[in-house]
Amino acid sequence: MLVLGIESSCDDTAVAIVEDGRTVRASVISNQANLHAQYGGIVPEVACRAHYETIIPLIHQALDQAGVDLGQIDGIAVTNRPGLVGSLYVGLSAAKALAWALKKPLAAVDHIEAHIYANYMVHDNIEFPHVSVVVSGGHTDIFMSETPVKHSLIARTLDDAAGECFDKVAALLGIGYPGGPAIQMCSLGGNRDAINFPRGDGGPDGTQISFSGLKTAVLNDLKKRGFVHEASKNSGRALRPGTPDPKAFGETRTLNVRLPLADIAASFQEAACDIIVRATLASSRRARCRGVVLAGGVAANKRLREKLADACDANKKTGFFVPPLELCTDNAVMVAGMGFHQLRLGRADPLTVDVLPNKEEKQLKLKAAETVD
Ligand code: KG4
Ligand code: ZN
After folding, report:
1. 41 lines ligand 1 (CB under 6 A)
2. Ligand nearest to the CA of 335
3. What SS3 state is found at 96?
4. Pick from 291, 317, 343: which residue ends a domain?
5. In angstroms, what is the span from residue 297 Cα to ligand 2's centroid?
6. Closest CA relative to residue 186, chosen from 136, 256, 258, 245
7. CATH number for the domain that contains residue 361
8. Which residue, of 126, 171, 188, 315, has the greatest Cβ tally within 10 A?
């Protein structure tokens, strides 16, 4: 069964063609980071327009890459929740048009479930139930997963998402957007113990997640050093590993301050990873699960992968699973995989299906969320 997947929930337009939920026949992504870099974050209207311009050419590109024509596609999968409303509509409209014209079933996919599903596409030995940790630009959620479509919420960030925190700290440092890869690159050669940034206490059972204290601590540290960077004027240019690019600080450098950038980046990254690792282990204890699945854009972070793998190993040899880098950040392969699963369960969606942009609407869906105990 050939499923064509479409992803456009945020700032990546992606199309993939996947055979039988596993074999990737095509995967193409158009990343908008350059468009948004000058603003230091995603501008929804800019994202929506870029999806609109790219979606049709990307579908053609994916078909070419897979060497198939539209008539050979057996089903269409598309992210319809959660995400930016305009961006979601572009993907959903394209998917509906294809499903209608080809008279093929449509599967509307949850972006977060798709991130988790990326793991099932590449690992054969994941046992249920397990803990799923989704860390991305928009979400930091920990679930107990009983099946690929049944995830009960255990913990959720009280404020910023993990990726959002990386992006905001990178903006404070003036090192570019998206912040995660920039911070990882800057931290190379840095001393991760140089600054003891706060990690919070994890709340009564260790599952509490919060990144705002960490972000504020970085801001205060920079202020103490006399360094203030205006995020909005961030140049977004690429950096060489471990070396601050003086041009990246641009005209907004208020004082001639030499910043130990690698040490700050490494210390911040260490603290952010510690927060995620602590909440993961506590959630795994609470849900009495012996496996941890990591997903989402921040799962591409090398230090997080290392630390979580070590922590799981030390914790009674808890199994640890993470997708390859290209399936961590947004892509349509995971959407096609998830859609295949839904279609195989006989869960096609009607062409009247709508977008569900908000976490709140999704929370209603997860009504059993707080019942894990
Ligand atoms: O899953 P994703 O591509 O999009 C959302 O669904 O949000 O995640 C994007 C987020 C961004 O915040 C980006 O800074 C972060 O993932 N990210 C990373 C790394 N690569 C991407 N964060 C830390 N380290 C990385 N290597
Ligand atoms: Zn994502």
Report:
1. no
2. 2
3. helix
4. 317
5. 6
6. 245
7. 3.30.420.40
8. 171
Nearest CA to ligand 1 atom 26: 301
80-113 tens-digit pLDDT? 999 999 999 999 999 999 999 999 999 999 999 9
User: Is residue 69 domain-shared with residue 152, that is, in the same domain?
Assistant: no
Residue 373 covered by a domain: no
Q: What are phi and psi of 331, to 5 degrees?
A: -160, 165
- Our answer on whether the CB atom of 295 is closer than 6 Å to any ligand 1 atom is no
Going by CA atoms, what residue is nearest to atom 7 of ligand 1? 137
The residue whose CA is least distant from atom 2 of ligand 1 is: 297
Last residue of a domain, one of 317, 337, 352: 317
Which stretch of 282-291, 324-333, 358-367 has the lowest confidence by average pLDDT? 358-367
User: Rounded to two decimals, what is the model's pTM?
Assistant: 0.91
Structural domain range at position 187: 128-317
* 221 CB burial (10 A radius; 0-12, 13-18, 19+): middle
Closest Cα to atom 8 of ligand 1? 297
Which atom of ligand 1 lies nearest, measured to the CA of 11? 4
Is residue 286 a part of any domain in this protein? Answer: yes
Under the banding of pLDDT at 50, 70 and 90, the label for residue 360 is: low
